[in-house]
Amino acid sequence: MKEEAVIAYLENNSDFFIKNPEILEKIQIPKRKIASEGVADFQKFMVEKYKKDRDEAVNIQNKLISVTRTNMDIYDRIQTAVLSLLEARSFEEFIEIVTHDFAVIMGVDVVSLVIEANEPNIHHVHLRGVKVSAPGFLEKWLRDGDGLLQDNIIGSEEIFGPAAGLVKSQALIKLQVGSNTPLGLIAFGSRNPDMFHHEQAIDHIGFLAEVVERCIRLWLKIPA
Known about the structure:
Helix 3 packs antiparallel against helix 4 (91-106) and helix 3 (42-86) runs parallel beside helix 7. The chain has one domain: GAF domain (Beta-Lactamase). It is built from seven helices and five strands; from the N terminus they run ααααββαβαββα. The protein is α+β, with helices and mostly antiparallel strands. It has a five-stranded mixed sheet with strand order 2-1-5-4-3.
């Protein structure tokens, strides 16, 4: 195509660059002659500002896409975890699913159940994967909250036992099975130091904890 044809097209379509602003990034624009020192070239300024704004918009879009994909992945994992709980044929198998299968399903390294109680041998807490801690344990870790997400940490043995050395980030969610039962928590630990962090929401993993609460209540016939 000859230059005359391009010029004629642009003259007849003066809004071409408005409709296709990304083309400005691929063409060279001549510097405008400045009559005197200290006079700003607003055309150059506008083009550079457009490029900067567009780059920022693309970065924001990519971050949103990444967050959306991550949320969908978590949602799928939560669904799989819930369905696996429904397949348990005994309370022992239910605990096995939570403390072992959940780690694979949720993509973490270790999952623990911790019960706060005065007696270390309370009913059903002798099961493998369930730990008993003295009263005050939840207040120490959760304060008055329902959950805690931390990154770049050293795992606690009172939560994760022998696997504590693997844990570099964690999600701790309170469990309250019934009004007259000991409090507890479900803990997810990962060797990835950035997998859990305080800026994340606990909605999805909190929902999974609520399902675990209700399943324990049903298995042990505990009133709400």
